[in-house]
Amino acid sequence: MISKDLNVCLFPMTISWNDVDANLDNLKASLNSVHPQTDLVVIPETFSTGFPAGKNLNEIKEIASKNYTRTIDILKELSNTNNFAIAGTMVCLDDDRLFNRAFFVEPNGDITFADKKHLFTMAGEDKIFSAGNKRLSIRYRGWNIAMIVCYDLRFPVWSRNVNNSYDILLVSANWPEVRISAWNKLLPARAIENESYVCGVDCTGTDNNGFNYDGSSMIIDYKGNEIGKTVLLPDATQQRFIYASLSRTKLDSFREKFPAWRDSDKFKIY
């Protein structure tokens, strides 16, 4: 049995919409203050651009093609220098198609990708991006980790933890304040039904359409309890980190004592 804890940090960063330089500078400056024993930092959806609602297809393609390599290089450098993984999403142009692409960057330079499955039709995301068809899955420092993106959270089948295939579910989002009540309810629900830790990170700021984001972010245990501790960044930005140490021993013990996962319904998505 693996007993090593995993130290997680959520960074509900303030996003400057359409300003890649400002967002990358913010990320670099802020992550220098992360606690040195951290294993994993989770950042919001489309952290470098903001959610690109209201922009035309060619504009988004230009932003994606211009900034993709630079963004990946910065993520790799930050991960390697600080010896923690970084997970989030970014706008990606691949074979002339746009994707809302989740990434998991490891300190050794390895990167795992998967594209957002459920595109937010109410904001026209399906008119801009192509949908993915697989969920990001990674084994990192003895933990099995799955990752979904924002609107994916509303679809429990996509998050289903079949036979405890994952120990932690990461959720990277741009979830506006006007609908934050649903976000705050769905995150604990996913933790309870899947008997796993859930780490959900939102952003702060105001987007091009005037929607506000309050940065509501949580680290939740397998019983649905919020366990994160908030620490303000040591600067004038009013941004914050949320930390928690996840216990594999406690997770395994709970799954053994209350094995609801064994009674789950069998199904196939396709």
State the helicity in percent bands.
25-40%
Biggest sheet statistics: 7 strands, mixed
How many β-strands, per DSSP? Answer: 14
* Global geometry: globular
Span between termini: 33 Å
Poorly predicted sequence stretches spanning 5 or more consecutive residues: none
* Helix and strand composition category: alpha/beta
Strand content: 25-35%
Which strand order do you get reading across the main beta sheet? 5-4-3-2-1-14-13
Average of pLDDT: 94
Concise account of the structure shown:
The chain has 270 residues and is an alpha/beta fold.
How would you describe this structure in keywords?
270 residues, alpha/beta, seven-stranded mixed beta sheet, five-stranded mixed beta sheet, 6 helices, 14 strands, 27% strand, globular
Question: Can you characterise this structure?
Answer:
With 270 residues, the protein is of the alpha/beta class. Helices cover 26% and strands 27% of the residues. The protein contains six helices and 14 strands. It has helices at residues 20-31, 57-82, 125-128, 156-159, 180-194, 248-257, and strands at residues 6-10, 40-42, 85-94, 97-105, 111-115, 136-140, 143-149, 168-172, 197-201, 204-206, 212-214, 218-220, 229-232, 240-246. It has a seven-stranded mixed beta sheet with strand order 5-4-3-2-1-14-13, covered by helices on one side. It has a five-stranded mixed beta sheet with strand order 6-7-8-9-12, covered by helices on one side. It has a two-stranded antiparallel ribbon with strand order 10-11. A hairpin with a 2-residue loop joins strand 3 and strand 4 (97-105). The protein is globular, with a radius of gyration of 18 Å.
